[in-house]
Amino acid sequence: MALLNVSMSSKLPTKLPHLHPHPPHHNHFSLPSYPAPHLATLRTPRSPHPLLEISRTSLFSSVLQSVSNSSLLALLSASLLVVDPALAFKGGGPYGSEVTRGQDLTGKDFSGKTLIKQDFKTSILRQAKFKGANLLGASFFDADLTGADLSDADLRGADFSLANVAKVNLSNANLEGALATGNTSFKGSIITGADFTDVPLRDDQREYLCKIADGVNSKTGNATRDTLLCN
User: Fold this and answer.
1) Distance separating alpha carbons of residues 107 and 104, to the nearest angstrom
2) How far apart are CA 141 and CA 98, in angstroms?
3) Dihedrals φ, ψ of 206, to 5°?
4) The whole model's pTM is what?
C-alpha cells in the first residue's frame, strides 16, 4: 500500500497548471464589424412650432417687401437724376411736348392753338403771339408778356399774378375769372372789348383800366367798363 502511494505520488506533476475560473469557449464566433452610421442620419428633424413658422414667414415677407420698395425707390431716384430737370416743368395741352415754363419764348407764335392749362410760369414771352388761342386756365405767373398779342384769346381762369402785362393787346379777350393779384401791371395795354368779369384787381389797377376802357366783347356781349365795375 505504501508502495502504491509512492508510485502515484511520483507520477503526479510537481506544478499544477494555472486554472482559469471560466475556461474559454473554443467554439465561439465574432460578428462582422460595420462602420457606425453618421449621427446626422440618425437625427430626426424637429417640426417647428406652427406659430414660430408663421412668424418667420411674416418676417420674411416683410423684409422682402421692404427690399422691393427700397429697390423701386432707388430706381425712381436714379431715373430723376438722369432726366433733364426742365422736363419736370412741362405744361399741359398739345404744346406740352415742349417745355414752356421758365423759358425764353420771345416772339413765339401760339396763335389759334389750344393751350388749356399750359404752364408759362416765369417765362419770357415778349412780343409772343397768342391771337385767338385757347388759354383756359393757363398760368402766366411772374411771366414777362410785354408787347404780347392776346387779342381774341380765351383767358378764362388764367393766372397773371405778378406778371408784366404792359403794352399787351387784350382787345376782345375773355379774362373772366382770371387772377391778377400782386404787382401785375397792365400799363400801356389795349383792352378794347376785353371782358374782366370777376377779375380781382387792385384799386389802382382798376382805376387805371377804367380810364382807357371801351368797347363790348363780341363773344360775351359784355361792355368792358361794366366788367371793370367802373363808375
Assistant:
1) 9
2) 18
3) -60, -45
4) 0.60
